[in-house]
Amino acid sequence: MDILFHGVRGSTPTAHEDFLRYGGSTTCTEILHKEFQIIFDAGTGFQNVSIKKDRPTYLVFSHFHYDHIQGLPFNYEIFDSSNKVTICSGLVSAKELREVFVRAFQPMYFPIPLVDTLKNLKFVDFSTAQDDMARLCALETIELNHPGGAAGYIVEKNDRKVCCFLDHEYGQLDKVDEELANKANNCDLVIWDGMFLDEELPPKKGWGHSSIEQGVSFSDSTNCKRLAIAHHSPARTDEQLKEHSNNLKSDKVFFAYQGLSHKL
């Protein structure tokens, strides 16, 4: 499996020379295998995804805050009717999911009624997606601690396992954190929300994000093989991220950047 980071910024995209190395596009992560394509979220990084015609493509949403959905209409490959995309979320039903995007991309906010226009988008319940994918890989969802709710995901194929835990506020709900740790134990890659630093957390309590330092601690306690810090603050420059990366006290934690391909 290849893990492709198309957008690693949180909250809002950034466009400035100080953000070129790690990229300014918001959240979008792709898991690409010769038998399937899974895309987690459609932030502005979604425009960089190449939709595959030769394998099933699933677009899986953690939740529906702007930075996770705003790129959906701007990957022009979805306007190719031969590109079939199945959309699901562990957070809501297929009916509710479709309504989210009907409302988000209606003419008041977007030039065309996107969902009605794109007949190649298929909305399904998460359990249906799980069943459909069962012969290809194991796809699980897990609760995250985020305002309004969010879903994390675990993908397993043969002896490889990836956990995507973006938009989670660590250290507030013990039961949720314990479940995440159980799923992440000995996995090949955890994708972690590193929006804040520890020193920035107190006034941001309840905002639904974790810190870089918490990611390092989580990687040690779960014995995961690698942990990728993502969902970078839109205010965090390349130089700042480089400095934090250099200061890491772990050789298995790394900072994801836009365009990174990580092979498992």
Structure description:
This protein is an alpha/beta fold and 264 residues long. It has one domain: Ribonuclease Z/Hydroxyacylglutathione hydrolase-like (Metallo-beta-lactamase, Chain A). It contains 7 helices and 13 strands. The strands form 2 sheets. The chain has a 7-stranded mixed sheet with strand order 6-5-4-3-2-1-13. A 6-stranded mixed sheet has the order 7-8-9-10-11-12, sandwiched between helices. The longest helix is centred in the middle third of the chain and has 11 residues. The N and C termini lie close together (5 Å).
- Look at the helices and sheets and give the structural class: alpha/beta
Terminal residue distance: 5 Å
Q: What's the count of strands? A: 13
Given as residue ranges, the uncertain stretches (5+ residues, pLDDT < 50) are: none
CATH 4th-level superfamily: Ribonuclease Z/Hydroxyacylglutathione hydrolase-like
* Fraction in beta strands: 25-35%
Q: What percentage of residues falls in helices of 4 or more residues?
A: 10-25%
User: What is the radius of gyration?
Assistant: 17 Å
> Order of strands side by side in the largest beta sheet?
6-5-4-3-2-1-13
Number of domains: 1
> Could you report the average pLDDT, rounded to the nearest whole number?
97
CATH top level class name: Alpha Beta
Report on the biggest sheet.
7 strands, mixed
Shape designation: globular
